[in-house]
Write a structure and sequence with these properties.
The mean pLDDT is 90. The chain is rod-shaped, with a radius of gyration of 31 Å. It contains 2 helices and no strands. The termini are far apart. The protein is mainly alpha-helical and 78 residues long.
Length: 78
């Protein structure tokens, strides 16, 4: 904080303008970061939903366990 105060111009109006400019730049940066995080969160939710659907489909389509005692499976289609 002290370094920021020391780096400001001595003129009060110029210092105010400098502080406002820095705040606007930081606000814009934070806005971009928030947009990026929201996009990432959406992508993660979509990926998780796809994973859940795929897992459910795989469980539903899983073949019955092999009951063949020989080396060649005869209970499943090849």
């Amino acid at each position: 904080f002290e370094q920021t105060l020391q780096s400001l111009p001595p003129c009060t109006k110029c210092a105010h303008a400098e502080v406002l400019g820095q705040l606007e730049a930081q606000t814009a940066g934070l806005g971009r970061e928030m947009t990026g995080l929201a996009t990432l969160a959406h992508a993660i939710r979509e990926s998780a939903a796809t994973l859940e659907r795929t897992h459910a489909q795989l469980r539903q389509d899983a073949p019955a366990p092999c009951r063949c005692r020989g080396e060649t499976c005869t209970c499943h289609d090849e």
